[in-house]
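Re: weekly structure request thread

Next one in the queue (401 aa):
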Amino acid sequence: MSLAADITRRQTAMRLRRLGFGFGLAASVLALYELISFLLHINGYPRLTFSLLAWVLLIAGMVIVYALHGPHPDILPAWALPTVIALWTATVVFDLIGAWAPGDAAATPTATIAVGAGLLQIATHAQPRTLVVCTGVLGGTIAVAFALHGLDEPLSLAMAYLMIGLAAAPAILAMLVVRSLGVAAQLELDRAQVQSTITSPGFTVGMLASEELARLDLDAERLLEGVATGRTALPLDAETADAAASIATELRLHLIEGRRETWLYHAVSESTFLGPAVTVSDPDGLAGLLDPDQRDGLLSAVWLLLSDPPRPGQGLNIVMRRGEDASRAGGLTVPISISTTGVPRKGVDPATWHAVGRVGTYGESTRDGTLHIEIECVVGNPVDYESEQPAPHANRTEGRS
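Done, posted below.
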């Protein structure tokens, strides 16, 4: 599981680097377009010195981001973003001063619009809140400048809307893309973690408990090594004895939990997306009797029934109970009930029913706008299953690895 999570993280970082490169390229094209527009109308700027200074500051900020993005594609130094934002703030001020004039003598503040392209360049590095604030201030500044200059003619009003859109839209769209990528990456990582429970023992400790068991194992080994090498004197002093008793108690508690909690419990409770939306009622631990193909079918059906990620108001309730027919196919019949909330029947993907069919024979109905799925799942003999379970200490070893 840790290997799958590590691979997913690396893939996400690679996608983010590629996305940042694409944003940087788009920012360069937009800034170059505005620069060409400025050069073509350079004689029309009332205060050309301020306009030239604005472009120098803008380009300096973009060069800083490009220079630091090369050796550190994933993160910029702490000083970089405040410095760049300060340079671009000065760019807006100088550019508006350079373009300002009464009546038709005013020029287009091209560097101010190009600052929006600069914000696009840092979309993968800045926090969404920072990007929203900067974009809002930029758009608001342009709006105020046009309002002070006067919007008597419809053409002036249309030009104001166009400039605000050109300055603000790229960064806002980039922020939405980055957020969508973050949600998709988290969902992929979550699915990899949940999918790992398919091949885990029926009753086991979860990922977090495994990490805790590894820590407790290390503490116990250090204590035993101290006794074996003579560093820890016998009999143990009160403080060391209390520490040993605490380690033993925690180990016993974790091992007991590992014999009560099934793979399905950990798949749901340790999932960022499934945890808030799915509830499991399995007092007899019957989920531990499902074979890997049935587990995969059940988890696939859960993911397909919910949105990616689950929307507010969506939920699933999975109930497992011991069946009355214990002789069918030499095993045990486990009725599984899945009740949905906020999942319309017509919105269920056809692949869902194929996944449910891998668990067992099923029937579905809709009552009071709620979709109900009843599955008759046949599992192996519980006695045979218990004989194949690893000894309790095996869970501890697995957790340590």
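The beta strands are 278-281, 315-320, 332-341, 361-367, 370-379. The chain is about 65% helix and 10% strand.
Next request, please.
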